[in-house]
Give the backbone structure.
Amino acid sequence: MIMIKNEVQKPDDATLIIKRMLNAPPELAFKAWTSPEHIQHWMRPEPGMVVPMVSMDLRVGGKFRIQMKNPDGEFFTGVGEFREVKAPERLVYTWDWEKDGSGAEFGEVEGKTSLMTVEFLKRGEQTEFVLTHSRFASVESRDNHVRGWSAAVESLAKFVEDRANNEK
């Protein structure tokens, strides 16, 4: 099957949309996006990054924390709260960065909260994945996230395709 690349859209200064066909069913893609043990395998916004720790309370009002560490030892820890959880079709949650991010517990955030909507749309045996990240504080922040999310979605696509092939 042909791997379709990410389609990136920037409808305005504060919004980023990334679409990608995934060669896996929505249930598998949703689980990969929301399971700490899976996130640790595919979340790679930069080459060489590792994910030492993920916590995920997957319910409306539940919080998540994804701690990423680059090869230089710098931490990038994304945190937020779930606003909508409709497995396996849709997630809506806030996104912010911790100021330090190196600790084992939730830390102080930067306070530039944005909004994520992630959809997993069934298309035959595939999933149309749509990530909409909105309410960026600046164009620069949006554009920095284009690089990170594009790399992460590429890694997710490979991860779910490998898992789907192993289940056949």
